[in-house]
Specification:
mainly alpha, 22 helices, cell membrane, Poly_Biosynth_Transport, 0% strand, 498 residues
Length: 498
């Protein structure tokens, strides 16, 4: 019993350290990325963002299919990397190469499907990142598996700075969407080199048929689920591009990215450790007991941010991007609701992957896509880009989250109430705080003053309403960090943080 407790404490402290450094990584990365978007948005027209949106849809779908989910078997941390890694590497290289060639060859047809022929060269350039990500799939997964988030901060920051250094002169020179595409290729090259430098173990490609069968048994449903979820999250771009125009698509892309900022930051921080941690906890039989606490802690941090995005959507858009982008504010307000629900969805998905239930995950994503597509068509027809946000929020709240809760009840042997009850108080407090922020800012004509006043009052209300819960969360994090520093020098096992 003592040995298991020590292992749990070691895992908890390695995960806590990696989460802390993952948070630093995400904070720095999002600051640089946000600054880059602001700078570029003031240099190029909204329709250029529409072309980029089309290219990103293609790139994202291909990237998430490129290694057929093979890295999931390695990331869960329950297998021998010496046995698994060479086969994973081979699968990632071959499939990413095929996906890259297909994306380049089919770029004209794909751009035509989105009714934006100008996106053809942008798709072809951005497709190069698929091959680069495939070449870096193994080292980046080893960094993830071994909780090496501290050195990853340097790699990711260098990659983002490379994007910024490349995109500004290109945009000033009139490259338009191609500036965004080529800068991403440069950033991916830097990331590829960095991950190979910091990976704890290096492997050459190899192939074991038995290992490949086991990897693909777990990975293929995950890859298909990733494909479906990215189609789900990008079908709105396709519909808006065909039902409206490239300018509307550019406005919507900007609003969607800003609305998803809280979920992307928080889930990226959690994913720095979630799958390897959840995999190990599930193997020990303790994941169900702690799943509700994970959901509660994430909800506490995420909901108020989304509430502020919804309440202050118009001044936020104008202050960040300028008056030319003001029409995106109405889409941002409706997409903010989806941003909040998406955080829970992402955590539930990680719980499924950690538990090894990737087939269930696939069918949940299929149900999401089937429900969302008609809702988007109706929403866009009635309310334009704002209607797309309404459709996303309605389907996530009424279909997706209930399905995940039902699935996880069986997987983790835990009650639905235990999973979600910790998120109800943060949700109610966030609604009140957001309402306060909106009332405080709605009559202020100066966008910056409205943003500052609404943000300050809304944040103060949320802290006051959730003071006890927030204090408990801080004490829990401090306790984990104190335990980490009190461990003896040999307390860590494996390639932990240094």
């Amino acid at each position: 019993m003592t040995t298991v407790s020590g292992q749990d404490r070691t895992l908890g402290n390695r995960a806590a350290s990696a989460t802390l450094w993952g948070g630093v990584n995400m904070a720095l990365g999002r600051i640089v990325q946000f600054a880059t978007t602001i700078i570029v948005a003031r240099m190029i027209a909204p329709e250029h963002f529409g072309a980029l949106a089309v290219a990103i849809v293609v790139q994202t779908i291909a990237t998430n299919m490129a290694e057929l989910g093979a890295t999931a078997a390695l990331a869960r941390g329950t297998g021998d990397p010496d046995k698994i890694a060479p086969t994973v590497f081979s699968i990632a290289l071959v499939t990413s190469g095929v996906m890259t060639a297909a994306a380049i060859a089919l770029a004209p047809a794909l751009a035509a499907a989105f009714d934006d022929p100008a996106a053809t060269p942008v798709i072809q350039v951005l497709s190069l990142t698929i091959l680069l990500q495939g070449a870096g799939a193994l080292p980046s997964t080893m960094v993830w598996r071994e909780f090496l988030q501290k050195p990853r901060v340097v790699v990711d920051l260098c990659s983002l700075v490379t994007v910024l250094v490349l995109v500004v002169p290109m945009a000033l020179d009139g490259w338009g969407a191609m500036a965004l595409a080529w800068s991403r290729v440069g950033g991916q090259l830097v990331a590829l080199a960095g991950y190979w430098i910091i990976t704890p173990q290096r492997y050459a490609p190899g192939f074991d048929r038995t290992v490949a069968a086991e990897i693909l048994r777990l990975g293929m449903p995950l890859a298909l689920a990733n494909l479906v979820v990215f189609v789900t999250l990008n079908v709105d771009y396709l519909l808006i591009g065909r039902m409206l125009d490239p300018t509307a698509l550019g406005l919507y892309l900007l609003a969607f990215n800003l609305a998803g900022l809280p979920s992307s930051v928080i889930t990226a921080v959690i994913r720095a450790t979630a799958v390897p941690t959840f995999g190990r906890l599930f193997a020990e039989g303790t994941l169900g007991a702690v799943a509700g606490r994970f959901v509660a802690g994430i909800s506490y941090c995420a909901f108020p941010i989304s509430a502020m995005v919804i309440a202050l959507s118009h001044p936020l858009i104008v202050v960040a991007y300028g008056d030319a982008w003001a029409p995106a504010g109405i889409a941002l307000a409706t997409l903010g609701v989806f941003g909040a629900t998406r955080i829970l969805v992402e955590v539930f998905a990680d719980l499924c992957v950690g538990a090894g239930r990737t087939v269930w995950l696939f069918w949940l994503q299929v149900a999401w896509l089937v429900s969302l597509t008609p809702a988007l068509i109706v929403g866009i027809q009635w309310w334009g880009i704002a209607g797309a946000g309404i459709a996303h929020a309605a389907v996530a709240c009424l279909v997706v989250i209930p399905l995940y809760v039902v699935a996880l009840k069986s997987v983790l042997a835990v009650g639905a109430w235990e999973l979600v009850r910790g998120s109800l108080v943060p949700l109610a407090a966030a609604i009140i705080a957001g309402s306060t922020a909106w009332l405080a800012s709605v009559s202020v004509t100066e966008p910056l003053m409205a943003l500052l006043l609404g943000g300050f009052l809304g944040g103060a209300v949320y802290v006051a309403l959730t003071y006890r819960r927030g204090r408990l969360l801080v004490q829990t994090v401090r306790g984990l960090l104190r335990e980490r520093t009190s461990l003896p020098a040999g307390g860590h096992t494996g390639a932990g943080e240094s």
